[in-house]
Amino acid sequence: MTGIAALTVSLPLESIAPGTHLTTEGTRIGHLYILESGRLIVTRGGVTLATIDQPGAIIGEMAVLLGKPHSATVEAESECQVRVLADAVDALTQYPELLLHIATIACARLDTTSALLVELQHQATDQPREQALVRRILGALTALPRGSRGNWVDHE
User: What does the domain layout of the chain look like in residue ranges?
Assistant: First the structure.
């Protein structure tokens, strides 16, 4: 067993029925979920953002690490099996390899997002509104979240 499966094998495994919400936009539960099998749908503001069906995908990390309510609803589209890390902020101190894995995923997403935004900026050379929006998004990617001091004290 390697990777995320090895890091999470000791966590409780739960079966999730289709239609069940793992997270609900605007709520806080403090848990992380690691998908073992099945298919999840991610929506925000009624807009479908993603479908998750890759084993090892982590759900709920943004809310846990930012100490904020969930920004999206994650619903089981099919029968799912998930590993559950309850009270994740405290528990992650016992799983530093998992925390590093989550940080690596977040950095990879940020890298991909910024590269796509640069590409979009190049394509929008004759579209001032689109260029302004891309500049605004790129600026947001480099800023600390509002009210954040950028450290663990934010969770206390």
Answer: 3-88, 95-143
Secondary structure class of 44 (helix, strand, coil): strand
Span 60-109, pLDDT tens digits = 999 999 999 999 999 999 999 999 999 999 888 888 888 998 999 989 98
- Per DSSP (E only), the strands in 8-155 are 13-16, 21-23, 32-37, 40-44, 47-52, 58-59, 73-76, 80-85
- Please tell me the distance from the alpha carbon of residue 8 to that of residue 29, in angstroms, as a whole number: 19
| Residue from 99, 88, 101 nearest 2 by CA | 101
CATH code of the domain made up of 3-88: 2.60.120.10
Q: Please state at what angle helix 96-123 crosses helix 128-142, rounded to 10 degrees.
A: 160
Which among 28, 39, 23 is positioned nearest to 73, based on CA atoms?
23
Kindly list the distances between the CA atom of residue 46 and the CA atoms of 18, 19, 26, 40, 132, in Å, as whole numbers in the listed order: 18, 15, 13, 15, 25
- Predicted model pTM: 0.80
Quick: pLDDT tens for 103-131.
999 899 889 988 888 888 888 888 888 88
